[in-house]
């Protein structure tokens, strides 16, 4: 089974973040630097020398996670108090802001971190996006705020920190000022795309937030986890349609399931992949439509992340007691949804193949 | 059966044009004036003394109709050559322009009017709107360009000229510069509304064009005819929810089926209208959603046009051989669609009640 989606080419994290990468190079120092309290930094990401904990703009990862969880819990909770209504053009530029003093306030609980402010961008618009993507408010809240966020240990060269929710459904990524600003500007076009191009393979954006602490702004975006563990991928390719320097690095190849690139694909699968004619046509059409949108946004640095789940291999792995994939149950074919989840959230679990074949 | 929709309060023409009226007062001279060649003008509308023909910005109505028909035929024809694609944000500000010399050109036929230029605003966006409203390109072309446009003789106080297509489905209205500009700015919000609020009772905009002739710009908008003859209305009310000066004029009352106003409604129907609970709730919700959108557009001069088709009265009229409604067949209940039309165009014929009960 082939799984397709766009990917952040600067990272091996399987999420589609291409559309917010355009501005990154402008703000991102290419080389690492050292400061008094940091061991090594890439962009805004560093490591605290005393504890070894990751930092972002000198805020520790644990404080950032805490602020994100408190902030999202508050903003989603307060949004659920407000009546449902249609999204208006004005909603795309709204920014809601709430102060979280460590001693607590009428509106916010006490916490063990420094005071911070939490900003929610376009709350009504993102509520609509989440609804369109089948994410129920309760599940969003539960996945992100009631279970620990797990920091990814191989965050790539972008200088961002990545977190994944415990249930492996959501990715949180720090983004730079320009990227967040750019994403905000794209929201009307994004709205139009998800209404017209139901099969779109572009990243699903669920929220854009900002944690203000110690005079620094840390902006984060919440997205779908494109390749969750529930369907183990036996091969992964990050494809750009270019052959220039498009081979996975030696370091990447050392991983259990590396993300290969275009030149590897040509070498490993010289015949390409065999898709049924209908799926092939639907996929090509979707990629065309997505590329037209990216082009209209003047985005050119994007790629298609393709995961291959080999049914025979999965079957063999299962017979061997799932040895190859740790202690996880390996699924194949239609994914069995978690019984706790309602039907409405199907899209979360839908494989990309269902997305390819789905409604126009 | 009740039919509801917003209406142009400055006119008795049953079309929902409220959202493009906001700017009108600024440009519209309130009093009539006389010029050398014109008998009487209201705004840009006048009458030629020699022929008695209506003029708009000194262009005769027949020349205007000819230019509109040639222009729309060309723009819809050339659009059908282009591949279907998604609407992008950029599409809302596109203006296509084509010159029609009277002797004809490679692209345009010869004609009997003066040279003119025809501009189409946001062609891709309006193609999408027409598709959303179930208007097939062929039918749009046929209704507007292959049959005569009929000028309405009671165009109201707005200074606009109104045409209706021979099949009574489309209304064409001249709009002023500011109104056209305003409508263009609303297009992204309009796109969002028809995607979210499927039951919207706001006017259906099918096209925005401009005829440039003799140094003048004549902008026109093509809309749905809210109360087509096919369902004869026995009572009509233009409701604003205000009681200030909201009684139909004596002149209006002289008409066969006058459009009454709020004070008349209160007097004639002190108990209001009885709607089934589901319809009542759906209608209230839709009006709320429409009003929220109008408010977001900063439009406050709008009204609800309500038509009442009395089944008993229609039945009696039919028994009397349709005497009360001329030689037209009077229909009731679900409207029987013209056999020539495909199912896709259903929405054209849908009564507002179906619209009220329709999908979210």
User: Spans of chain A with pLDDT under 50 lasting ≥5 residues?
Assistant: 1-38, 323-352
Question: Strand order within the widest sheet of chain A?
Answer: 5-6-10-11-9-8-7
How would you classify the helix and strand content of chain A by structural class?
alpha+beta
Order of helices and strands of chain A: EHEEEHEEHHEEEHEEEHEHHEHHH
Overall number of strands of chain A? 14
Plain-language structure description:
2 copies of one chain form a homodimer. The first copy, chain A, is an alpha+beta fold. Chain A folds into 2 domains: 19-224, 2-Layer Sandwich (Phosphatidylinositol Phosphate Kinase II Beta); 235-357, Phosphatidylinositol Phosphate Kinase Iibeta, Chain: A, domain 2 (2-Layer Sandwich), CATH 3.30.810.10. The first copy, chain A, is 32% helix and 20% strand. Chain A contains 11 helices and 14 strands. The first copy, chain A, has helices at residues 24-27, 61-81, 123-132, 137-146, 177-196, 250-253, 262-268, 277-296, 311-319, 346-349, 352-357, and strands at 2-7, 45-47, 54-56, 59-60, 95-100, 116-121, 149-151, 162-165, 170-175, 205-213, 216-224, 235-239, 259-261, 303-308. A 7-stranded antiparallel beta sheet of chain A has the order 5-6-10-11-9-8-7. A 4-stranded mixed beta sheet of chain A has the order 1-14-12-13. In chain A, helix 2 packs antiparallel against helix 4 (137-146). The longest helix of chain A has 21 residues, at 61-81. Mean pLDDT of chain A is 80; it is low at 1-38 and 323-352. The A-B interface holds A 85-90, 128, 188-189, 191-193, 195-197, 289, 292-293, 296 and B 85-90, 128, 188-189, 191-193, 195-197, 289, 292-293, 296.
